[in-house]
Design goal:
This protein is mainly alpha-helical. The protein has helices at about 5, 15-20, 30-40, 45-60, 65-70, 75-80, 90-105, 110-115, 120-130, 135-145, 160-165. The radius of gyration is 16 Å and the shape is globular. The structure holds zinc ion.
Length: about 170
Amino acid sequence: MSYCDFAPGQPYHGPYHDREYGFPVKSDDALFERLVLEINQAGLSWLTILKKREVFRKAFANFDIEKVARFTPAKRAKLMTNAGIIRNRLKIEAAVENAKRIRALGSFAKWLDAHHPRSKDEWVKLFKKTFVFTGGEITSSFLMSVGYLPGAHEETCPVYKRVLNRKPRWAVT
Ligand SMILES: [Zn+2]
């Protein structure tokens, strides 16, 4: 069963599927949020992440890249005691390190735009050398979910057309 068949009407998956999944994301902090969520999903279900999203936002300063980049070792240790997020040291460290790396790029959105278009494999290579904790699956899920790679929705899904109307990068030639 595809996500488009399964997600609609579900309390957490439904709104994400209908309003976020595959729609282009322009703000750097929003892009950063989605990257962090995809990284945290590794080995877990997407539902687990969606349920924890509000706590994630509080714990990670609303995904303000500048603020997360400055998280001290004490702050990171404190996050390890927050049961509302995923208490995985590598994932927490990855959020902070990736915030620093995004800051060094200038703008995340502009950097993504500058590297578009690119095949999935080329994106994966680029992400591996630019960020941490960004393997093939995390990178391609992230890029699909924010509109840089196609494939989020089935063409028969009612949301597919709405996504296209918002001109995701993959659809713009
Ligand atoms: Zn869909």
